Structure formats: C-alpha cells, structure tokens
Amino acid sequence: MSAVIQQQESPQSSGSWPGGDGGNWPRYPRLYEAIPDSGPTSGGNTVLLTGAGLQGTSQVTFGGIPATIVTQDPSGGSVTVLAPPHAAGTVQIIATTPRGNTNSVSYTYVASPSGPTVTALVPSSGPTAGGTAFALIGTQLTGATVTFNGVPATGVSINPMGTVLTGVTPPGPVGNVPVVVTTPAGSTTVAGGYTYTAPPPVVTLLSPSSGSAAGGTAFVISGSGLSGAVVTFNGVAATGVSVNASGTALVGFTPAGSLGNVPVVVTTPTGSTTVAGGYTYTAPPLPVVTLLSPSSGSAAGGTAFVISGSSLSGAVVTFNGVAATGVSVNASGTALVGFTPAGSLGNVPVVVTTPGGSTIVVGGYTYV
Predict the structure, then answer these.
(1) Is 49 within 8 Å of 81 (Cβ atoms)?
(2) Residue ranges making up the domain that contains 75
(3) Among residues 97, 98, 96, 28, which one has the least CA distance to residue 61?
(4) What is the CATH number of the domain that holds 246?
(5) In the prediction, which pLDDT does 87 show?
(6) What is the DSSP string of 152-180?
(7) Do residue 225 and residue 177 come from a single domain?
(8) Same structural domain for residues 63 and 124?
(9) How confident is the model over 8-24, as a mean pLDDT?
(10) pTM of the entire structure?
C-alpha cells in the first residue's frame, strides 16, 4: 500500500500534527503528492499538489524557493502552482496555510537537455531547384528537423550519436537563406546559412553545327539560362552575340578557326556548359565567278570593273598576275568591284583568290 493511501486511510489523531489546534484531521494542512513529481530545472511547468486542509494557502516553496500559485481548490483538496527554477536534484515542497505549514513531499528537478549545435553545413550552396544532398555536423541533433528559408528539407536522417544529419535541400530563391535546425530541446540557426544559386546554362541545340574555317557563319544556340552568355569556339569568342529576353535563344557569328571539330563553351554568370558535339570547321568554299564586266578596257588600266558570283569575301583579283586596286566586296560575298591595273595589249588571265582558294575567270580580260 502506498504512503499516500496510508496517509489517507490513517488520519492524524487529534492534536498529533505540529501546530494543530486539538481538532480532528483533516483540519491540519497536509500534502499527499505532487503531480508530476519532476520537471525541468528551468521551472515554469504546472504542478498539481493534492492534499487536505489546504484552504487559504499563501505560499508554496520548492526547496525554499517560492512557487507561483495559480489556483486553489476551495475545499482545500489541492493547489496548482508553477514550479520555480532550481538546480538539478530532489527538493522538498511545503505549503503554508493559515493553520501552519504542511508536511513536505519530494519533487525532482531534471537538467534540461541542451539544444542542438551545428559546426558545419556541407555544401553551403546549391541550385535553386533543390535536390542537393547535404550534411550537418554538430551535437544534440537527435530528433531534428531542418528548414531552408522556412521550407523543410526532405529525406532527413540522423546517426545514433546525434552528431551527423543528412538530407536533401528543398527548392529556394536565388541568394542566401537561413537554415534552422529544430529538436525537442530547442532550435539553432546555422551560421552562414545556405546560398541558392541560379542554374548553369543549358544548351539543347547549336545550328548549324559546322561552317567555314574563315568564320563569320551565323549560328543559333537554343536552351535555357543563356542570359549574359559569352560563347567561345575552341577558346575564341564569337562575335555579335545577342540573347533574347527569356534567355532561351542566342545568336552570333563564328570566329575563324582551324579545320576540324572544336569545343564550343557557353558561359554565363552562373556557370558554363560545353555544347554536345562541338562545332566542325570546314574549308571555305572556292570563289565562284559568273560575270566580269566589262571584259575589256584600256591597257593604261584604271578601268572600273564588277565581278559577280558567290563566296567572294576576302578576295583579291589579279590581271595577268598584277593586283587590281580599290577592291571591295559586299557583305554577302556576291559582288566585287575594283580598278584594273595597267597591262599589255591582248587577252590576259584574271584570277580571283579568297581564303577558300582561287578561280580563273572564264574568258579573261582583253586590254585594248
């Protein structure tokens, strides 16, 4: 039989309780038990004290420290209090009433578990899409949850020692966000937080995938995250690069390059990507001449002429091996103008030479 039941079934005899007035129990104040009979060292928790003759209780002490009285049973059967803070260990509870002090009952203060600590978050950054595996190193991590900018991480797992926590980041906005670790004992904010980074550029298509080694070939790159991009072909920057507002398409012109396949790299402020398949430089096409006009002129030279055809960019023109002067080619490489050099009477060969090779103009030119 418990001590509490024995006390209830065996009331004190008349005048047997110190300070009694000779009346019968339960006129003397009496405590039976504290519910609960333990709590944190920080105090502040509610404790129900059951007993008898507790009407008008003016003070309740835990190890000599006053508690806060919350409510009292008018019939004197209980008092509810808030436990005061106290060092760990067992103390005695005593209530004071108009009829004197009660007997004492035991109450045990238990040291509150310390909150979590975090010494490292690895990695400390990752893409805004989330899905990055991470690890937290620290102490007292058992039972923890982790939030990134208020959004819970997924797949959280903690080792038996409570020193390593792993999980997967949720999606988040670009920039640094707070990381909070919460356990039943408290919360801590991870120093330095976590930085969400914009994804690197993605390239789905380069068109065309080959072109003249002379460069100047217009190209289009399709993908995502292309804003602010620069493009290199074998390390040489493309020219005239422009990106649309959504960052999904990029245009430009190839630089000159060596024959063969070369790497193409797209670089933005958030990273770089190498275009699958690269780009193949091919030999420039031979120039094609369809017309030389006029086909004759003064042996003194200085006659203006026009050559029509294709792939004429970068051309030089010779008349019987002597270079024409004032040569200029239109942007499309389909027309060339210049002035004839002086020459000997008669028909002479006319040769057009570009980076792609040379061609002899059919019919030549006749000095008269």
Answers:
(1) yes
(2) 3-110
(3) 96
(4) 2.60.40.10
(5) 92
(6) EPEEEEE-TTS-EEEEEPPP--SEEE-EE
(7) no
(8) no
(9) 41
(10) 0.48
Same domain, 178 and 219: no
pLDDT in tens, 147-184: 999 999 999 999 999 999 999 999 999 999 999 999 98
Residue after which a domain boundary falls, among 89, 110, 131? 110
> Could you give the strand order of the β-sheet that contains 194-197, starting from the edge strand earlier in sequence?
125-127, 194-197, 175-177
- Spatial contact of 145 and 158, defined as CB atoms under 8 Å apart: no
Averaged pLDDT for residues 195-209? 94
Please tell me whether residues 121 and 40 are part of one structural domain: no
Residue 27: what pLDDT? 62
Q: In whole angstroms, what is the distance from residue 149 CA to residue 147 CA?
A: 6
Rounded alpha-carbon distances, angstroms, from residue 286 to 212, 229, 283: 11, 34, 9
In sign, the C-alpha dihedral spanning 66, 69, 74, 76 is negative
Q: Residue 139 burial by CB count (10 A; 0-12/13-18/19+): exposed, middle or buried?
A: middle
- Residue 86 tokens, joined: 């106290």
CA–CA separation, 189 and 146 (whole Å): 10
Question: Residue 344 is encoded by which pair of tokens?
Answer: 């000997």
H or E stretch at 8:
helix 3-9
Can you spell out the DSSP letters for 258-286? -SEEE-EEEEETTEEEEPTT-EEEEPPPP
Paired with 187 in beta bridges are: 182
DSSP SS3 for 345: coil
Contact 351, 341 (CB under 8 A): no
CA 203 → CA 174, 276, 281, distances in Å? 21, 8, 20
